[in-house]
Specification:
- The structure is a single chain.
- The protein is built from seven helices and no strands.
- By secondary structure, it is mainly alpha-helical.
- It has one domain (about 15-170).
- Helix 1 packs across helix 3 and helix 1 (about 15-35) runs antiparallel to helix 6.
- The radius of gyration is 17 Å and the shape is globular.
- It starts with 15 loop residues before the first helix and ends in a 5-residue tail after the last helix.
- The relative contact order is 0.24.
C-alpha cells in the first residue's frame, strides 16, 4: 500500500490500530493545545515560511497519516497558479504547501506537533510572558509521547522528515 510519504506504508490507515493511534494523536494534540492556551504570536504565519525562519516541522509517520487524511477529506491540496517569474523573495520564503493563498492553514486542526509548539521570539504568553517562559519540559514530554506513538504506529518508518518533502510526495492535489 502507498503511504502518505510516497513510500510503502506498513500500516493500513483504515485498521482499528491506526484508528486508535490517530485518536491517541488527537488526544496528545489536545493536551499540548491546552498547555499552550493563551500563547500567541502577532506574526502567526511567519513560521509557515520555512525559508524566513530557517526552521521546518519534521512530522512523524502517525502525524503524516493524520495530515494526509485531513487533506483527502478537504478534497486535496489546491492547485497553485504558477507564475512565469518568481521573485527572489517568493523563492526564498519556501511557503508551507498547507498554507492557503489567504495565509491560513488548510488543515489547522490537524497541524503537526512542530507547528503547534513553534513560537518565535515575538510570541507571548497569556499574561504577556516572553517565549522563554514557555512550559518546555511539558512540551518535550508530549513530543516524546508523539514520537513513541509513531514508533508503535509504524515500526519500520525511518523517522520524522521535513514537512515540505513529505507533502510534495503525496500528490494529493485537487483535481
Amino acid at each position: 500500500m502507498r503511504g502518505p510519504r510516497g513510500g510503502h506504508h506498513s500500516v493500513d490507515p483504515r485498521s482499528s490500530g491506526a484508528t486508535l493511534a490517530l485518536d491517541t494523536l488527537r488526544s496528545l494534540y489536545a493536551e499540548v493545545d491546552s498547555l499552550l492556551d493563551g500563547w500567541s504570536c502577532d506574526a502567526s504565519t511567519d513560521c509557515c515560511r520555512f525559508g524566513v525562519t530557517g526552521r521546518e516541522p519534521y512530522p512523524t509517520a502517525v502525524e503524516l497519516a493524520a495530515l494526509a487524511q485531513a487533506v483527502r477529506a478537504r478534497g486535496g491540496l489546491p492547485k497553485r497558479r504558477s507564475l512565469p517569474v518568481v521573485t527572489a523573495r517568493e523563492a526564498s520564503e519556501r511557503r508551507c504547501a498547507l498554507l492557503s493563498d489567504a495565509g491560513k492553514c488548510l488543515v489547522y486542526a490537524t497541524r503537526p506537533f512542530g507547528c503547534r509548539t513553534f513560537f518565535c521570539e515575538r510570541a507571548s504568553g497569556p499574561a504577556g510572558e516572553s517565549s522563554r517562559a514557555m512550559p518546555k519540559k511539558e512540551i518535550a514530554r508530549l513530543g516524546r509521547a508523539v514520537a513513541d506513538l509513531s514508533a508503535r504506529f509504524d515500526p519500520v518508518d525511518p523517522g520524522p522528515r521535513p514537512l515540505s518533502k513529505a507533502v510534495a510526495a503525496w500528490n494529493l492535489r485537487a483535481r
